[in-house]
Amino acid sequence: MVDWRALKKLTNPQAAGDLNAFLEKLPQRAGKTMLIMAGAAWALAGLSGLYTTIQMKKLTEVRATLQEAKALQPIVPVIKDAPVDQKEIAEFVDKITKIYDGLSIKVNGSAIVISADSTASFGQFREAVGHVQNGGSGWRVAVDRLCVGRECEQHPLGVSLKISKVSVEVPAEKI
């Protein structure tokens, strides 16, 4: 609720005269030392307000520059390896086992293990590895283990190929 009487006192033409009389008598009542201290406090408050305003302006400009730089950064997709369904790998192995009958081709989790008992099967071994490389749609084939020759422990020809699919995703913070 508005106190109309108080408002009427403040807008009275006599109020300006009362303020002027108060300010003229202030040095005698408060003392010059207190006035100097009050003036110094007001000056310090004014300077800190000015400094804060200038710093806020600079901060706003830096923030705008940073946002502009972020807007110019391209969105870089993230490439991830996704596992391939083991059923899909097993079906592929069943199909190529019939083609390369001189080799042992097995599924080991998400990997295909190809081995041969003789180095005479190298041509067929090489073609089987190439077939797996071009196998499924979107497959990413990585050589996990490869052994060719007399130094191999169990079979003179052996390779373990890890199978995964490539997925390209947009980073979450850019969406």
Summarize the structure.
The protein has helices spanning 4-11, 13-30, 32-72, 86-99, 122-133, and strands spanning 78-83, 104-108, 111-116, 139-148, 157-169.
Question: SSE layout and pairings?
Answer:
Blueprint: H1 4-11, H2 13-30, H3 32-72, E1 78-83, H4 86-99, E2 104-108, E3 111-116, H5 122-133, E4 139-148, E5 157-169
Helix pairs in contact: 2-3
What does the radius of gyration come to? 42 Å
Total helix count? 5
Low-confidence stretches: none
Query: Mean pLDDT score, rounded?
Result: 87
Class of secondary structure makeup: alpha+beta
Query: Biggest β-sheet: count, sense, barrel?
Result: 5 strands, antiparallel
How far is the N terminus from the C terminus?
Answer: 51 Å
* Helix-strand topology string: HHHEHEEHEE
- What is the overall shape? rod-shaped
Overall helicity: 40-55%
Q: Tell me the number of structural domains.
A: 2
Estimate what percentage of residues fall within beta strands: 15-25%
**Tally of extended strands?**
5
Could you characterize what this model shows?
- The chain is 53% helix and 23% strand.
- The protein has helices spanning 4-11, 13-30, 32-72, 86-99, 122-133, and strands at residues 78-83, 104-108, 111-116, 139-148, 157-169.
- Strands 1, 2, 3, 4 and 5 form a five-stranded antiparallel sheet that branches.
- Strand 2 (104-108) and strand 3 (111-116) form a beta hairpin.
- Helix 2 crosses helix 3.
- The model has no long low-confidence stretch (mean pLDDT 87).
